[in-house]
Design brief:
This protein has 190 residues and is of the alpha+beta class. The chain has a single domain, classed as Sandwich (Jelly Rolls). Helix content is 31%, strand content 33%. It is built from five helices and ten strands, in the order αααααββββββββββ. A hairpin with a 2-residue loop joins strand 6 and strand 7. Helix 1 crosses helix 5. The longest helix has 23 residues.
Length: 190
């Protein structure tokens, strides 16, 4: 059941990526130049033939000025006020095993989002730029340990630590230790 739900979300994300490109008036070539993702890969992503990595989705969201949570939520139906755990969209990066669950999907007129992330021990995920310049983050580490590099500054976090930062440039998350890191990120749009 979880595999079917996950596949359904991936298909909806693929369709949304295709619509975003069309709405932006971009050709595959122009989007490839902006993101550094080949035209062939972009085409396969939009057709749902390839599962995107976190880095790919990060570059695409940056090109469109969207957060990954907004993309995932938009691939779903319009978000209600109450989102039961079973209805929260979860996505897994096929490259790193990083899992991201949209706890409170973004909604029109609201500036906050909350996501839960599971980062496997030793895995890392890097984003080249902030999808929305000036996006405020509050990262609360629930379990494990994590290294986070934001705009060239490295922070080492342990369970119970909370880091507040404004994201404008690149970022890199890496699970430390022998257990996965589990954390919440509250995002506030500028």
């Amino acid at each position: 059941m979880e595999i079917d739900a996950s596949r359904g979300l991936e298909e909806r994300i693929a369709r949304r990526l295709a619509r975003l490109r069309a709405e932006s008036g971009l050709t595959l070539g122009a989007l490839a130049e902006r993101t550094g993702i080949s035209r062939a890969t972009l085409s396969r992503l939009e057709r749902g033939e390839l599962s995107p990595t976190a880095a790919m989705l990060g570059r695409l969201c940056t090109a469109y000025g969207w957060t990954l949570s907004r993309l995932m939520a938009d691939a779903e139906t319009r978000p209600p006020n109450l989102v039961p755990a079973a209805g929260q969209a979860e996505w897994k990066d096929p490259g790193s095993g990083y899992r991201r669950r949209v706890v409170s999907p973004p909604a029109p007129g609201l500036r906050g989002e909350l996501v839960e992330v599971h980062m496997p021990a030793g895995a890392s995920v890097a984003f080249e730029a902030s999808p929305v310049p000036g996006l405020e983050h509050h990262l609360f580490l629930l379990e494990g340990s994590l290294s986070l590099e934001v705009d060239g500054t490295v922070f080492k976090l342990r369970a119970g630590d909370c880091l507040r930062y404004v994201l404008n440039g690149p970022s890199r998350f890496q699970g430390l230790g022998k257990r996965e890191a589990r954390y919440l990120v509250a995002m506030v749009h500028p």
